[in-house]
Amino acid sequence: MKSVLKSVTDLKKESLLVLFLPYLAYSIPRIYYSAFFSYYMLALYLFIIIVFDVVYKKINSGPSLWIKTGSILFVSGFIVFLYSNFLVLQVRDRLYESFKLEVRGRYLFIILFLLIAGIKLLFIRKKSVFDLFVNRTLLLFTLFIIVSNFFRPGVGLTAAVNQPQATGKRELPITHPQKPVLLILLDGYHSPDELGKYASDTDLYSFSNYLTSNGWQTKSRFYSYETSTVYSLSSLYNFNLSEKGNFSDITELRAIDLLDRARFADSLEKKQVKMVNFSFFNIGKNKLYTYMYPEPDGFFDLFFYYSGLSNIKIGTGDMDLKGLGSDFYSTSVYNEGLLKKLPALLDSATNNNLYIYAHFWMPHAPINFSNEINLRDYSTANYYKYWKFTGDKIKNLLASVKQLDRYRVIITGDHGFREDTRIDPHFTFAAFYGFDSASVKKVNCVQDLGKLVNDYF
Q1: Which end of the chain lies in a sparser environment, N or C, as judged by fewer CB atoms within 10 Å?
Q2: H or E element: which one contains 377?
Q3: Above pLDDT 90, what percent of the chain?
Q4: Could you please report the per-residue DSSP string of 187-199?
Q5: In Å, how far are 35, 138, 237, 248, 437 from 256, measured between CA atoms?
Q6: 242-289, pLDDT tens digit by residue?
Q7: Distance between CA 362 and CA 407 in Å, rounded?
Q8: pLDDT (tens digit, 9 = 90+) per residue, 288-297?
Q9: CA–CA separation, 9 vs 12, rounded Å?
Q10: Contact (Cβ atoms closer than 8 angstroms) between residue 187 and residue 364
């Protein structure tokens, strides 16, 4: 026991445990609020880390050149994996902001790996001095993170998490015959009224005019309380938790947990309405369609939530070997597949007790769709091109559905464009098909849409 304690506290040797400490100090107070959090599992994982640390130090103490080289490569990869959410994403954002240079995360991962390995090789002759300096620095940094945790937002709104369960009762007296409902959400789709202030284009209202001419009711300047997808949806599927104005102060993981326990989904279940979930979020018991967003599905995912694990899974199409290709974009594959799948499903469905949620990752970055559009720079001008492209794709989708009259349909965004300070990201667009005008007029924001859909079943 003494030898183990001595090994763990030896700061003159490279320590996996000390490398882990800043990550643990940052992540534990945040993952604590997740439904997947467990003190038992946390203790088990910490024990495993300590065991690995002791074994690693023992193996790495030998004179073998192969072992020393292997340890440099292993630790370099370990650091980039564990901290890529901070290292890779920060470097990528700085490169774009300062030089308008768009570099994919997978390439930055390799560059940072080689850079860290190079630094370690540079100090290989003074390894004990270098390791002592690194360990002490990391310990101080860990202490700084622990102190800063006491001043961070996101610990309030217990009431939002403990909302009473939905009764399933209608808020509006709906007298129309029951139909299936389709909600199409376009991620980051901005209000044409707002875009019109910065883009003079005769095609600005092309999509909106197409919908209006085909019997849709449209809102060209539709408000969203939230400018983050997960907060917007979490509020929507819990019958608007944003009205008090501080919903986004909770941590992202708590917002995800609220989606996992969505009151909207509970209400549909009580009414025996089937939900089809074409999105990258679990909504109640309705599991995600594909992995496109860092959403934990157990303690392992939760523990490494702030590491590079989720970005690796997303960037490779959930660990698909095809995803290693330089021309692979998981968002493009997802959007293309959904556009192909929806028409057949909509034309074949016969159940009126049916709610379909289709979430498209467009016109949100990256601007990539097969070989039709591929723009690296997410500028306002390029966003506008992708915004129009998205409208055309949805127009073609609607035109291809033969039984569209069987459905009530909503098209909206979760928020607007966030990359231009001149443009308010709180404004998006909404269109309604098959809903009575009195009900549509009562819908004032994106987060009210869950109430509207629930009322029609």
Answers
A1: N
A2: none
A3: 67
A4: TTPPPHHHHTTT-
A5: 10, 31, 11, 12, 32
A6: 988 889 999 899 999 999 999 999 999 999 999 999 999 999 999 999
A7: 23
A8: 999 989 889 8
A9: 9
A10: yes
